Amino acid sequence: MKIVALAGGVGGAKLADGFYRARPDADLTVIVNTGDDFTHLGLRICPDLDTVCYTLAGLANPVTGWGRLEESYATLDAVEMLGGPTWFRLGDRDLGTHLVRSDLLRAGKSLSEITRQFCQRWGIRANVFPMSDDPVATIVHTQADGDLAFQDYFVRLRCQPEVTGFTFQGIDSARPTPGILEAIQAADLVVVCPSNPWVSIAPILGVQGIRSALKARENVVAVSPLIGGQAIKGPAAKMFRELGWKPAALSVANQYQDFIKSFLLDSADVDDCEEIRQWGIIPYVSDIIMKDIPGRIRLAKYILNLASQLQGGTQSS
Amino acid sequence: MKIVALAGGVGGAKLADGFYRARPDADLTVIVNTGDDFTHLGLRICPDLDTVCYTLAGLANPVTGWGRLEESYATLDAVEMLGGPTWFRLGDRDLGTHLVRSDLLRAGKSLSEITRQFCQRWGIRANVFPMSDDPVATIVHTQADGDLAFQDYFVRLRCQPEVTGFTFQGIDSARPTPGILEAIQAADLVVVCPSNPWVSIAPILGVQGIRSALKARENVVAVSPLIGGQAIKGPAAKMFRELGWKPAALSVANQYQDFIKSFLLDSADVDDCEEIRQWGIIPYVSDIIMKDIPGRIRLAKYILNLASQLQGGTQSS
């Protein structure tokens, strides 16, 4: 069983972890957004990659879904004492990741090689890939604050500025990480995780060849990151609204309609099914909130079961 | 009262702290070796500057005299888990210093400006200066291992290779930090701290204008870093031996004979006095070990008393 998951941060990491735990025997490939990556205090920080890896390694805080378990902030306290920047909450253990990664990047290793090395060290059996080894930087265009680097918008300004659009700097020349197009082509199931469509999934889709690789497959299912018009976490619903879309599961399905065959949405959004079906997408309804680790496994198993039905030619909605 | 101290790491920091505590009203300037500075994991690390600053700020471990109080190593553990380098023991709090300093250096600030900012933040009233804002790198030439970067020799190889000489890369073009020549010229007392003559004091003396500024003064006193032929800490005695010198207080005085007027040595080395006096240097004998903070203050007071005697024209040996 070959599973490919497209993931941003927390929501993507949780569902990837669900597959990882539900089917330890499966060949799981996680393709992760790197548009949020940035350089801070001289460190190359890849928030989504780290969230996915920490989660799969059991090093993440299982309650928040991000950040490391039993983290401390002694370095950040020392940085603060010296008047350095503290708006990005770097934990001591997390810092080790950024220090080693930055050092290896300077030494000429690619981000995907480094990620592979880290996964081996952390005992992760899944294949975790950055979407590209070429740097891509998400720029958030805002009404009041102009163009913002993603982490400026996301962390420092807490997603408060009204968004007018996005640019993914470098996306036109970003080549897919070696192996990821092949993984999509060979997958028994491709899942677009419940991550932010605007800033987590869109950059992945923008990398050369990924969208068309997905279009060529019949087994691509997306999971809605919106439930009852709201995101579990993050600014996805707010972005839909600010960009003139209804903040709803159907809007997510609409954005993915050129490459998904199935769409999984929450029972709270059952009314969206009819419109989604009109776009040639089969809607599936379930309880899709992942409150805890059993919740991740439950959702993953639901999707795996759905996939086997699809392969068997039976459809249920 | 204007005091200038030339210092390397631990021994220098302890005596500087003695002056700082013994005479809180004095105008204390500490000129610190930067030949040990290096870049590690992308961080600019200045071990002697940090040891002096931590000590004056009360942030140093008072037992070891170096490293920070109540330090933890969560980041280094995380680095180790990823296969990163751990031979240089970076503590979590210490890391904050290196991160902020490296960031400010990249932003174009000079090391002396950064050190001034840090001292203000840490509440240090003394003037702590790197010997130069221009980078100088101590290279240790060895018999068996060739040329070694200083920290490679000092930390990684624990000073084990036999030394044949030193090169201070960049020293010929290293300009003195603005203000330090003036501080030497205006000082009521200039003290060469009990630091390693080969790798802590020699680089300072090599910076343009410093040695001649010292030669022009009559109030330069050096304190022996060797007691009974041994260093309290570090490879000074071993270096003297390997370079063909007797590891003794008198060898230290010999190296400084062109610019010191007085030399303070331990009562264990009273036999060295006669030879030292023949070089036109007045030897002073006392118990110069600084076992604890009262010991630092006691030694500082002894030197201050000696200085006032010198100024009064009376000499005792």
Summarize the structure.
Chain A is of the alpha/beta class.
What would the keywords be for this entry?
homodimer; 317 residues; alpha/beta; Rossmann fold; globular; disordered C terminus
Q: Describe it for me?
A:
The structure is a homodimer of 317-residue chains. In chain A, 41% of the residues lie in helices and 19% in strands. The radius of gyration of chain A is 19 Å and the shape is globular. By secondary structure, chain A is an alpha/beta fold. The longest helix of chain A is centred in the last third of the chain and has 20 residues, at 293-312. In chain A, helix 1 crosses helix 13 (293-312), helix 2 (47-57) runs parallel beside helix 5 and helix 4 crosses helix 5. The two termini of chain A are 23 Å apart. In chain A, the strands form 4 sheets. A 7-stranded parallel beta sheet of chain A has the order 5-2-1-9-10-13-14, with helices on both faces. In chain A, strands 7-6-8 form a 3-stranded antiparallel beta sheet. The interface between A and B is medium-sized, with 31 and 31 residues.
